[in-house]
């Protein structure tokens, strides 16, 4: 098929999606199974790619193929493009391989002209319909193909309606529309410097070229980046015979879903407009009517539509998003595609399709995007908030959004990128607003319906959306929103409840997400399939309990340093750091020990029967002290208050208080003495590059009493919870090991301390290490001689392998690298497969060579990234560990990886 660029719809099938695009393949498949669709042909994605490779020039022979297929279409329909009698009108629509709603361009009614408009009017017996189609064509063609600003046409249309004293386009008569065509042509001439072409075939050529070019427009590029769609796929172009929903009371157009895309419920969901064309519905030009009302307006077409919806869902085995037109009572389907849906809906749909016997469980798991589950794991509006809504719109996409009002997409993108929570408030979004929608917490529109652009895009991204809130009055010049007597400015915060459609002033309280039956059932299927274990990173009993609720099979990383930072503990930690001798340090450690023990008891109890990996202290000690600059400024301020009295830098608090008293000073002088002492310690412990300095095992070997205190706390906590009837599974992890001798010596400290604490009482435990340095991965065979498990700390391993500081890079050059395509993904979000991923592979392979059966996992945040999980499964790790709220994502991703490897093996065998 590679030697052809154009296919008739009759030649296409669903499995030709990569060539014909989603729309072309969908329409061809509907035609193949007998669903009524207009006739036409598709210019393939290969043609678009070839044109892109030639800098926009078409490949040889493409136009000849288009002309040949147009001739054939004219022959089949008995109509001719642009003819005075029985004219053929066509639509020219994009069709990417992956659905990109509203991101690329469409031209309707191509082929209408001063000659053909009269023939169209006579044939339909409806002059208003013909001239309405003509003005629509000039408007769309002028904007999409010739680059006339959209507002130039919209302003003239609004002005005409104002002069006629009407509110809707449908209130304009044939004479109004005839005059509007002339006005629109003059507008185009004013902006382009020439008349629009009148040859319909030339119009077709330019229109196809414009749709090709729309693949590269900014909004499409932003959408592809946000949804992980490659830039080199190109779009197909579908040229189809026009059917008309704007012929009057017996014609209509609409969009419907075979199930509710917000909730997944099997119920009627969609909207339609009588006497309209499709763009009127999705662009929010008119407020559409609920699909259920179509039964009383066009009953025969409604019944046929319901039967067709059911037929298509059964055929595709999935929720379908359908566009339809009723042309003078006759139903036509213009598109069917897999419907974008919320995560809540996605789970319910696949569960019910399995229950109905339409698909099996493996197919259901393949349908789900693991990353989409993140939508379910964000807080929702507290139902007991008691606030009165400002207004209500359509509950277009569920969830809660809290943020400051922003009235344009550019500002939303700028402020959202800066980390500010914003809600994009618009009359109605259009595809150019995509960057603002991505950056916003939610979207609120005054106009448009449940199938408008704002609703569809928000649902696909998991953004709460309230659409069609008609009480909103948006003053763009005054930068404010009026809701009755209430005025909102861009400094005001609002709350959206996308589940109910309510809009509130101020920030309302949120509640944690609730795990649904659909969630439990589908994730249970994933657990039955996956090989890779899933643990959680948790530092408190509360986090551990939440992780277990979300399906974690243990704790893969408990960071003990987070416990030290609690306000009631930090002074004791500082006392330990500032101790002048071993006895003073031991006394401070003795005070910390029961605090650590209590923390570990909570975690062991929450994870009873499951492994808990506790990492010994990792950061350098100066992180528990004040910032060097801030402490220096404090000392300087105190010196200015009392004068530089030469306070000592060493000694106990009693020494300083005695000195202050002898110096004749009061509390300020004593504070200066203590501040100087603390400053001296901060300076002594500060390092130029602390990430590569005295931390982890290095600190433990210099001060083994710190590690010994932590091991004692672990042992005592485990014994205590076991006595209370729990089953602790203890794993002790030594961080930042780069030399096998480091781990050997640390094992001596750990084993000696455990032996002393257990005093012969049996308590199984294992000791392992984090592999977070390239050297550790390369000498993993030697390190494995002293480790019973490995945990790859991919956060630090990424930094040390790439030589990139995460904190610095993500705010500077890394963003520029991503935008310029120097790197394809953020290596701190998705594992660097060729570099860091290869080190994980090498480390695992060498570690297991020395210690067969070595248990190994990953405890960096890569453990919750679906693409990274797939690599870790492929490499052969035993588990991944991630934050509690990413555990479900990892569970599903691991199952998908198992299925993908199984499918790959099957494909290989079949080949």
Automatic annotation (TrEMBL):
Cofactor(s) it depends on: Mg(2+)
InterPro entries: ATP_grasp_subdomain_1 (IPR013815), PEP-util_enz_mobile_dom (IPR008279), PEP_util_AS (IPR018274), PEP_util_C (IPR000121), PEP_util_CS (IPR023151), Phosphohistidine_dom_sf (IPR036637), PPDK_AMP/ATP-bd (IPR002192), Pyruvate_phosphate_dikinase (IPR010121)
Domain PEP-utilising enzyme C-terminal: 518-897
Top-level taxon of the source organism: Bacteria
Keyword field: ATP-binding, Kinase, Magnesium, Metal-binding, Nucleotide-binding, Pyruvate, Transferase
Keyword Heme: no
Assigned EC number: 2.7.9.1
Residues where substrate binds: 559, 615, 772, 793-796
Domain Pyruvate phosphate dikinase AMP/ATP-binding span(s) in chain numbering: 58-288, 300-349
Catalytic activity: pyruvate + phosphate + ATP = phosphoenolpyruvate + AMP + diphosphate + H(+)
Annotated signal peptide: none
Keyword Iron-sulfur found: no
Record-annotated active site: 453, 859
PEP-utilising enzyme mobile domain ranges (all copies): 420-501
GO molecular function: ATP binding; kinase activity; metal ion binding; pyruvate, phosphate dikinase activity
UniProt binding sites for Mg(2+): 772, 796
PROSITE patterns with a match to the protein in the record: PEP_ENZYMES_2, PEP_ENZYMES_PHOS_SITE
Similarity annotation: Belongs to the PEP-utilizing enzyme family.
Cross-referenced NCBIfam families: PRK05878.1, pyru_phos_dikin
Protein's name in the database: Pyruvate, phosphate dikinase
Organism: Cellulosimicrobium protaetiae
């Amino acid at each position: 098929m590679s030697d052809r660029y154009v296919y008739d719809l009759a030649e296409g099938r669903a499995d030709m999606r990569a060539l014909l695009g989603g729309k072309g393949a969908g329409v061809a498949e509907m035609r193949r199974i007998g669903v009524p669709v207009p006739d036409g042909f598709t210019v393939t994605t290969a043609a678009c790619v070839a044109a892109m490779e030639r800098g926009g020039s078409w490949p040889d022979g493409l136009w000849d193929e288009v002309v040949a297929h147009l001739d054939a279409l004219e022959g089949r329909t008995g109509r001719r493009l642009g003819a005075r009698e029985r004219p053929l009108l066509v639509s020219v629509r994009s069709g990417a391989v992956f659905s990109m709603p509203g991101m690329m361009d469409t031209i309707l009614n191509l082929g209408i002209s001063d000659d053909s408009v009269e023939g169209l009017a006579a044939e339909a017996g409806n002059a208003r319909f013909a001239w309405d189609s003509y003005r629509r064509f000039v408007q769309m063609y002028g904007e999409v193909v010739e680059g006339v600003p959209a507002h130039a046409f919209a302003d003239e249309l609004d002005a005409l309606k104002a002069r006629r004293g009407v509110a809707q386009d449908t209130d304009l008569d044939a004479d109004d529309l005839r005059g509007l065509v002339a006005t629109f042509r003059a507008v185009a001439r004013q902006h382009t410097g020439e008349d629009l072409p009148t040859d319909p075939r030339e119009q077709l050529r330019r229109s196809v070229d414009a749709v090709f070019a729309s693949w590269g427009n900014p909004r499409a590029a932003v959408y592809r980046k946000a949804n992980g769609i490659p830039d080199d796929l190109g779009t197909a172009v579908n040229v189809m015979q026009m059917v008309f929903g704007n012929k009057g009371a017996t014609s209509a157009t609409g969009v419907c879903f075979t199930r509710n895309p917000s909730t997944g419920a099997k119920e009627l969901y969609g909207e339609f407009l009588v006497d309209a064309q499709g763009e009127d519905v999705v662009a929010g030009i008119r407020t559409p009517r609920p699909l259920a009302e179509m039964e009383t307006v066009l009953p025969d077409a409604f019944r046929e539509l319901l039967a067709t919806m059911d037929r298509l869902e059964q055929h595709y085995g999935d929720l379908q998003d359908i566009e339809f037109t009723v042309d003078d009572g006759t139903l036509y389907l213009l598109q069917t595609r897999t419907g974008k849906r919320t995560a809540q809906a996605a789970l319910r749909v696949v569960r019910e399709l399995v229950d109905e016997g339409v698909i099996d469980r493996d197919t259901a798991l393949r349908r789900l995007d693991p990353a989409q589950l993140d939508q379910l794991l964000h807080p929702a509006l507290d139902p007991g908030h008691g606030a009165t809504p400002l207004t209500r719109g359509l509950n277009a996409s569920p969830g809660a959004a809290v943020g400051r009002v922003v009235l344009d997409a550019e500002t939303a993108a700028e402020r959202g990128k800066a980390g500010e929570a914003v809600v994009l408030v618009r009359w109605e979004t259009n595809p150019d607003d995509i960057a603002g929608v991505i950056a916003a917490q939610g979207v609120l529109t005054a106009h448009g319906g449940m199938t408008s652009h704002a609703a569809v895009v928000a649902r696909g991204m998991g953004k709460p959306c309230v659409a069609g809130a008609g009480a909103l009055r948006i003053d763009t010049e005054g930068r404010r929103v009026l809701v009755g007597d209430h005025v909102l400015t861009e400094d005001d915060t609002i709350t959206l409840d996308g589940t109910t459609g309510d809009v509130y002033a101020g920030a309302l309280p949120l509640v944690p997400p609730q795990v649904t039956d659909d969630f439990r059932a589908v994730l249970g299927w994933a657990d039955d399939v996956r090989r890779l274990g899933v643990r959680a990173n948790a530092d408190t009993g509360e986090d551990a309990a939440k992780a277990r609720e979300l399906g974690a099979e243990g704790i893969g990383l408990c960071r003990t340093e987070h416990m030290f930072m609690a306000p009631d503990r930090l002074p004791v930690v500082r006392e330990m750091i500032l101790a002048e001798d071993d006895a003073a340090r031991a006394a401070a450690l003795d005070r910390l020990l029961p605090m650590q023990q209590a923390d570990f008891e909570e975690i062991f109890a929450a994870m009873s029967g499951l492994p808990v990996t506790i990492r010994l202290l990792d950061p350098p000690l100066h992180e528990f002290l004040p910032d060097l600059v801030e402490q220096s400024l404090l000392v300087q301020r105190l010196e200015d208050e009392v004068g530089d009295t030469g306070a000592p830098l060493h000694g106990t608090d009693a020494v300083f208080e005695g000195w202050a008293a002898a110096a004749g000073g009061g509390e300020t002088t004593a504070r200066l003495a203590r501040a100087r002492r603390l400053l001296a310690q901060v300076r002594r412990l500060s390092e130029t590059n602390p990430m590569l300095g005295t931390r982890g095992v290095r600190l433990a070997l210099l001060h083994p009493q710190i590690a010994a205190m932590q091991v004692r706390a672990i042992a005592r906590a485990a014994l205590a919870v076991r006595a209370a009837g729990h089953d602790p599974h203890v794993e002790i992890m030594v961080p930042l090991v780069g030399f096998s001798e480091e781990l050997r010596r640390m094992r001596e400290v750990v084993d000696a301390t455990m032996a002393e604490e257990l005093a012969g009482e049996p308590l199984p435990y294992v000791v392992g290490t984090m592999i977070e340095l390239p050297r550790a991965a390369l000498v993993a065979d030697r390190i494995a001689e002293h480790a019973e498990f490995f945990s790859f700390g991919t956060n630090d391993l990424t930094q040390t392998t790439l030589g990139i500081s995460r904190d610095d890079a993500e705010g500077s050059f890394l963003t520029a690298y991503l935008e310029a395509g120097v790197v394809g993904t953020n290596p701190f979000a998705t594992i660097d497969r060729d570099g860091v991923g290869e080190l994980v592979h090498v480390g695992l392979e060498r570690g297991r060579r020395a210690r067969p059966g070595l248990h190994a996992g990953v405890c960096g945040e890569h453990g919750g990234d679906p693409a990274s999980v797939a690599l870790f499964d492929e490499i052969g790790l035993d588990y991944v560990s991630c934050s509690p709220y990413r555990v479900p994502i990892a569970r599903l991703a691991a199952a998908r990886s198992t299925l993908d490897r199984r499918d790959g093996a099957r494909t290989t065998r079949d080949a």
